[in-house]
């Protein structure tokens, strides 16, 4: 909740960083002089001016600038200018100025239509813009964004997100600016030359057999049985979360115990082999047939959007920690390998397009390889 104060240099300089123990990453203050003018302070003590407003029945916000780069009087003048635009029915985030196109206008009018027509991950791109990038670059002229600003954004993002997440944002910006050059909206890419952060993707959490059994037992008594069944199916098949949540009854072949995934991360169709246990989980669901989803959501005709809350409740009840839903996929692979499956078999069970990805589980196969070596030794050594 915003705290109401009269902005001044003396007052703002004295404001402390957001406590590290607070649930929210930022603390918000509202100016008593200009309606909607906000100051946000993060845990590192950085301070930002924002304008929050309502347009066309929707709550919106836009970043005005960093405190220090903008002083209080400049922030107020900029906020008042935008409020004047709002009074004329104009959303200040959607203005194309005489000197060029804004970042937001380019994304909304050009990049996103192209992405939705050509990328399966367009929804993810859209979310990155609305949640992060529009706040940072939305009202800026496309051609005025500098390499230094993008570098600063990339560096600051890892203070609250994983390096891999920051890298996906940088890759998205590079792609957008390349398309802007291709389509004639700018001459050079300001994201060129910015290096990706080092990612550590080798850290994986696997459930032991005992932990998997504890999780299964808790899921059987979970209040949301639709979400619990989705989690069970992920554990039993190793499919990705979205593959499970988007599954339809028409994709299930009960006779051949096969589940067809029409479109996977690799962009190709694949089939998942269903065990009798997996089939029993499906049989407990309400099978309405046709094009209905296995795991329907609260909105008619829509699938379950996320099983995270159910998963977190189950982890707490089972006494498990440091586990993501995606780790169920790792658990499936580790249990399969530790019970005799080869890396080749796991590659096809998980639907990896290349065996390079499957090599992350190679260390788990050492016992199987040792047994195979012992069998060869027993065959070639004569028995007296």
UniProtKB/TrEMBL annotation:
Report whether DNA-binding shows up as a keyword of the record. yes
GO aspect biological process, one term:
DNA recombination
Report the GO molecular function annotations.
DNA binding
Task: Supply the Pfam families for this chain.
Answer: Arm-DNA-bind_3, Phage_int_M, Phage_integrase
Taxonomic lineage is: Bacteria, Pseudomonadati, Pseudomonadota, Gammaproteobacteria, Pseudomonadales
| The keyword tRNA processing belongs to this UniProt entry's keyword annotation | no
Q: Which family does it belong to?
A: Belongs to the 'phage' integrase family.
Question: Looking at the record's lineage, which domain of life comes first?
Answer: Bacteria
Q: Which organism is it from?
A: Pseudomonas moorei
The name under which this protein is listed is: Site-specific recombinase XerD
Q: What UniProt keywords apply to this chain's record, in alphabetical order?
A: DNA integration, DNA recombination, DNA-binding
Database matches in SUPFAM superfamilies:
DNA breaking-rejoining enzymes (SSF56349)
UniProt xrefs under PROSITE patterns: CB (PS51900), TYR_RECOMBINASE (PS51898)
């Amino acid at each position: 909740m915003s705290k109401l104060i009269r902005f001044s240099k003396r007052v703002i300089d004295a404001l402390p960083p957001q406590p590290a123990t607070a649930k929210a990453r930022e603390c918000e203050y509202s100016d008593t002089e200009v309606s909607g003018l906000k100051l946000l302070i993060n845990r590192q003590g950085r301070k930002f001016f924002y304008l929050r407003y309502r347009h066309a029945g929707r709550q919106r916000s836009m970043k005005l600038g960093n405190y220090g780069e903008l002083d209080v009087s400049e922030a107020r003048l900029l906020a008042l200018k935008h409020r004047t635009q709002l009074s004329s029915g104009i959303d200040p985030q959607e203005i194309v100025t005489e000197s060029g196109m804004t970042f937001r206008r380019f994304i909304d009018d050009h990049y996103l239509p192209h992405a939705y027509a050509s990328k399966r991950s367009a929804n993810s791109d859209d979310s990155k813009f609305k949640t992060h990038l529009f706040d940072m670059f939305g009202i800026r002229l496309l051609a005025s964004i500098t390499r230094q600003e993008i570098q600063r954004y990339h560096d600051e993002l890892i203070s609250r997100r994983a390096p891999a997440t920051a890298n996906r944002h940088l890759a998205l910006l590079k792609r957008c600016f390349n398309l802007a050059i291709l389509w004639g909206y700018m001459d050079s890419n300001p994201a060129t030359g910015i290096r990706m952060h080092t990612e550590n993707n080798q850290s994986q959490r696997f459930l032991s057999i005992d932990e998997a059994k504890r999780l299964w037992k808790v899921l059987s008594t979970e209040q949301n049985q639709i979400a619990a069944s989705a989690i069970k199916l992920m554990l039993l098949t190793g499919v990705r979360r979205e593959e499970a949540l988007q599954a339809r009854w028409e994709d299930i072949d009960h006779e051949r115990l096969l589940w067809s995934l029409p479109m996977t991360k690799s962009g190709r169709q694949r089939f998942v082999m269903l065990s009798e246990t997996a089939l029993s989980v499906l049989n407990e669901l309400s099978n309405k047939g046709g094009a209905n989803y296995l795991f329907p959501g609260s909105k008619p005709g829509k699938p379950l959007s996320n099983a995270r809350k159910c998963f977190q409740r189950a982890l707490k009840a089972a006494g498990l920690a440091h586990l993501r839903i995606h780790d169920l996929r790792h658990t499936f692979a580790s249990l399969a390998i530790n019970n005799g499956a080869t890396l080749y078999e796991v590659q096809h069970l998980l639907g990896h397009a290349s065996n390079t990805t499957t090599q992350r589980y190679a260390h788990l196969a050492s016992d199987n390889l040792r047994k195979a070596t012992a069998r060869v030794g027993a065959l070639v050594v004569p028995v007296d």
